[in-house]
Amino acid sequence: MSYKSRKNALYFLPLGGSGEIGMNLNLYQTKGKWLMVDCGISFADSYLPGIDLIMPNVNYIEKRKDDLVGLIITHAHEDHVGALAHLWPRFRCPVYATPFTMILIRQKLAEAGLLGEVPLIEIPLEGNVEVGPFTIDFLSLTHSIPEPNALRIKTDLGVIFHTGDWKLDPDPLVGEATNAAKMQKVGDEGVLALICDSTNVFNPESSGSESTVRDNINQILATKKGKVFCATFSSNVARVDTLAMAARNNGRAICLVGQSLKRNVAAAIEAGYLKDFPKIVSEGEAKNLPNEKILYICTGCQGEARAALMRIAEGNNREVKIVRGDTVIFSSKIIPGNEIMIGRLHNMLVEFGAEVITEKDAFVHVSGHPGQQELRQMYDWIRPDILVPVHGEVRHMEKQAEFGRNHGIPSCLVPRNGTLIRLAPGPAEIVEYNIVGRLALDGGFLIPSEDDAIVTRRRILYNGALVISLVVDMRGEFLTAPVVTNLGNPDGGMGYFEDVIIEAALAAAHKLTTSQRADKNKLAESVRAYARKAAMNYTKKETGPLTVVTVTQMEN
Amino acid sequence: MSYKSRKNALYFLPLGGSGEIGMNLNLYQTKGKWLMVDCGISFADSYLPGIDLIMPNVNYIEKRKDDLVGLIITHAHEDHVGALAHLWPRFRCPVYATPFTMILIRQKLAEAGLLGEVPLIEIPLEGNVEVGPFTIDFLSLTHSIPEPNALRIKTDLGVIFHTGDWKLDPDPLVGEATNAAKMQKVGDEGVLALICDSTNVFNPESSGSESTVRDNINQILATKKGKVFCATFSSNVARVDTLAMAARNNGRAICLVGQSLKRNVAAAIEAGYLKDFPKIVSEGEAKNLPNEKILYICTGCQGEARAALMRIAEGNNREVKIVRGDTVIFSSKIIPGNEIMIGRLHNMLVEFGAEVITEKDAFVHVSGHPGQQELRQMYDWIRPDILVPVHGEVRHMEKQAEFGRNHGIPSCLVPRNGTLIRLAPGPAEIVEYNIVGRLALDGGFLIPSEDDAIVTRRRILYNGALVISLVVDMRGEFLTAPVVTNLGNPDGGMGYFEDVIIEAALAAAHKLTTSQRADKNKLAESVRAYARKAAMNYTKKETGPLTVVTVTQMEN
After folding, report:
1. Is residue A547 less than 8 Å (CB to CB) from chain B?
2. Which of B360, B442, B447 minimises the CB distance to A202?
3. Among candidates A415, A371, A332, which has minimal Cα distance to A24?
4. b/e map A79-93, b = 16+ CB within 10 Å
5. How far is A525 from chain B (nearest CA, A)?
6. What pTM does this model have?
7. How do beta strands A438-442 and A355-357 pair?
8. What is the mean pLDDT of residues B402-419?
9. Which residues pair with A103 in a beta bridge?
10. Do B10-205+367-435 and B452-554 come out as alike in CATH topology?
């Protein structure tokens, strides 16, 4: 039964986040209308040289934007909201979020000059809203940021429970613990499909509680005499609160270092959180306090080059210095791919004589995603007919599907970005595969991740480049020696590279017939092939440099 | 007291491995004569684009090669022997090693065409040799390769105990367990300085035993019906033996996939190990066996692009296929920096329907380096006056120094590559700091890691490049339009980039006075600056592309 033949059906289609941890963007469709949930970014790895941010290619929904009734942002993490300002102009629909998230959305849109344009609808915690054929209840869960919302999406063809990012924290410090009775009731009222976070499915335990982290950091601070620095994720307001309380318990003032941290704390205070938060001292004031009286809370727990902690470690912060006897706590996990950068930062801090404490040394961080015990609890509450694992790489989603099957959920389907799953009517199945792709932010351009600019840089990264400029007459005879520009080909200090290429260019031209030589394109191609080969032979690389030949033909 | 004033002294100087885990190269000096221990490579990270292998810059010892009496290779891991064929021509000295290591050294030298040239001296296990003023005892320890040797280096000024890579395995499967009485005796006879592996100093426990790995893999194989693949480090002959035994116990034949694995197994058999090794079946034979009758042992546990497992996962091995129901065991750790590549490989395997088992799921790998319990045992045996931690990043070495101090070792000094430490006479101290640097293998050239070729590629990686070729007359007037070669600058499919650059080039020339324009260099520099700025404005990147302007001046 094909997609097109079923107008009265309920569909799920992820464009991002089902195949990677990051850039979540999910779509639901019924009665010909689409609902988007989240619009996030991800960080690029070295396969996309020079690219920091990537996001889903939204071509699919752009073509259908007239039928897109709204976008709901479940919470304010970058992998759920970070692409909004970049992509919204492509699909232009109303945006729904709870108060804390909305404060940060407004800031993002203002920076992009879009604030007046985007229809924003603020939904209270535990509120609900009708968006086209979708009736949506917001249900507060716990996570590592204020106001993480699960969505109960009611349609004529069944109810979807979209978890967003979540965990079960019996003592979450910021926000309320998950209400078991309420969740049980959601299950009692019936759920067709559970769309669920897979991030920590390989953890056989529960994720643990923020209050344990507070106790441990409290204990660490009690033993330290020097300055203490604590790096964490800037959006983790509960962690910042944890740190502030531990500081107060130990007679330390707190100082925030890093813009995004200050912004998140301000947003949390504006939204009514952190009511009992201590006074924040400035970097200048902190400098004048005794060492044992200050706790710096910093951005840069992933070793990011421009974040606060790296700038301090490089000596680039005039007010904040690290010296022997200081302690640096990484109250964070290592995001895969950042090991080398973080290791480098650790070494820099140790060189200064600081003690470095990470989650390997003490329980100073707790994850915001559910381990197997929490997933089991969620399945027991919700009792869905269908489980669709999202928010994971293939291995995480497949693992959750297996876990759900073992738990007795009748239908467990693993999506990929671009798969259209029909949830109802009839048995759930994948009915369409779309190629989706990704967009990369390259300077001011949002380009496909396979764009020439990126592919070219990747080629040069390995093999260097080589540009040869020829000036010839109308017969193709060289009027001057070829000019060689070597971009990244090694010659080990020998200085022969250019000579070798010039020789190859001359030989290439010589090999051509008179009529071939008079043809600009033939001449260029022949010189290119010879020169590239000569470069390969010279550098002994398996692949030659990216070689470009330009020919300027002059009338005699 | 300066270095020069003390001819009759004993010195230690690392050129590699003291500041990174990899590329070990250590030097000892007494009576004006130098002894080298190990000559290894390391793998480059993304900071050196296009580079796979790096190694220490041996400039320091090259200048003193007439006083270099020998090189001892402690064991055959690449981070201890991998640079030998590359660097030996620079210092040319006799090379000493035990039999298994020597087999692999001969292969390496033969491949490099150096076999006849290098004086090779094979030392039996537990043997000894006099090399200049150094008398050296080889003592077998345990590690993750056959024949890991510690060196007791006796000199007139004291005894050094150089551990090499080691662990204590009570049941090592290949080779003998460490002889406690022998080690105790080394300590009784007196050791001035212990030069010791720091790799696993953050592990508070012992590393564990190979026999536990065997038991676990045995159990896993007993439950599997499909084909089983096991990826491990190719030099870990004990692991290969473990796998072979587990296969035999479960009625499975073994098939080796990957050249380096075959080479290491052959070398081990030649050196007298693996005496009870089962028959190895070929890939063609394995294909015809029932699924439950075969265990493939593969290279590629780090997700390396060209290794056996990735080639299988990509469908590029004609004889070996992975299908639903198969199991892939990663009997290895993740080397930091390889997380993304390994994660990608896991996802590919899961896509095929294979079950992936790693050391996170079961104890299927054991480290070859000492945890804190083993370090403590070594300190108790050796009882040195001086501890010099090596084989680590700064944080590992500093941690071991702290650990040694807490254990009561009187003097604990942390070296860096290039620090000259006087071990005797008098209190140990750093007496000289030398800048060492690294060499990178770029195609056929061994170039400094800060060479132009690498720096250029790194710049292009982020910012792209731009080459502008001008053809002008003797007054600097353009004879044709500037020719623009865009290498990696995005233009988002707009196609205006080149026009913008040409316009900038024309404007730049126009701004110059007549005499400035007639000056090739001034013209080029002006066009370069304008064009780079125009590119920055166009792409909205914070840094402009690497911009090169070539000027061809034609006589009228």
Report:
1. no
2. B360
3. A415
4. bbbbbbbbbbeebeb
5. 15
6. 0.93
7. unpaired
8. 98
9. none
10. no
Q: What per-residue confidence (pLDDT) applies to B15?
A: 98
B394 chain-A contacts, CB cut-off 8 A: 347, 350-351
- Taking the Cβ of residue B495 and every Cβ of chain A, the question of whether any pair is shorter than 8 Å is answered with no
One-character DSSP codes across A38-78: ----EE--TTSTT--EEEE--HHHHTTGGGEEEEE-----H
Fold (topology level) of A452-554? Ubiquitin-like (UB roll) (3.10.20)
CATH class name, domain B210-357 = alpha beta
DSSP string of A250-319, one letter each residue: TT-EEEEESHHHHHHHHHHHHTT--TTPPPBPPHHHHHTS-GGGEEEEES-TT--TTSHHHHHHTT--SS
A&B contacts, CB < 8 Å: 185
Query: Does B494 have pLDDT greater than 90?
Result: no
Q: Which residues of A touch B361 (CB under 8 A)?
A: 202
Q: What is the three-state SS of A11-42? A: EEEEEECECECCCCEEEEEECCEEEEECCCCE
Interchain pair B461, A460: CB under 8 A = yes
| Architecture field, domain B10-205+367-435 | 4-Layer Sandwich (3.60)
**Contact status of B483 with chain A (Cβ, < 8 Å):** yes
Contacts of B301 (CB under 8 A, 6+ apart): B231, B232, B233, B309, B330, B331, B332, B342
Q: What is the pLDDT of residues B273-332, one digit of tens each?
A: 998 899 999 999 999 999 999 999 999 999 999 999 999 999 999 999 999 999 999 999
> Among candidates A320, A368, A365, which has minimal Cα distance to A342?
A365
Query: CA A327 to CA A332: how far, in whole Å?
Result: 15
Whether A479 has a pLDDT exceeding 60, the answer reads: yes
Look up the ipTM and state it: 0.91
The residues spanned by each domain of chain A are: 10-205+367-435, 210-357, 452-554
Q: Cα–Cα distances in Å, from B260 out to B87, B329, B332? A: 21, 19, 16
Instruction: Say if A406 is an interface residue toward chain B (CB within 8 Å).
Output: no
